[in-house]
């Protein structure tokens, strides 16, 4: 598209940068409120997986993985 070629379908009330958990939530809320929304994501929409238990499990597993790594290093607790 070049400048000047815009039509009404190219105009949005809200543009959300990032399609991770926060971006998806913001886009959904704006759309539910009747606004037109464009979601811009460089890689995969969803970022961190939002399916059942995926994000919470990452939050719970990372500290355990980190503790395991630290326990392998002499002198660290």
What's the topology here?
Layout: E1 14-17, H1 21-32, E2 37-40, H2 54-71
Parallel strand pairs: 1-2
Key traits:
elongated; two-stranded parallel ribbon; single chain; 77 residues; alpha+beta
Describe, in plain words, how this protein is organized in 3D.
It is a single chain. By secondary structure, this protein is of the alpha+beta class. It contains two helices and two strands, in the order βαβα. Strands 1-2 form a two-stranded parallel sheet. α1 (21-32) links the parallel β1 and β2. 3% of the residues are buried.
Number of strands: 2
Q: Kindly report how far apart the N and C termini lie.
A: 57 Å
* Rg: 20 Å
Derived from helix and strand composition plus strand pairing, the structural class reads alpha+beta
Count every helix, treating DSSP H or I runs of 4 or more residues as helices: 2
- Note the beta-strand portion: 5-15%
Proportion in helices: 25-40%
Instruction: Report the biggest beta sheet as strand number plus sense, adding barrel if it closes.
Output: 2 strands, parallel
Strand order, sheet with most strands = 1-2
Unreliable stretches: none
CA-based shape: elongated
Order of helices and strands, N to C?
EHEH
Mean pLDDT: 77
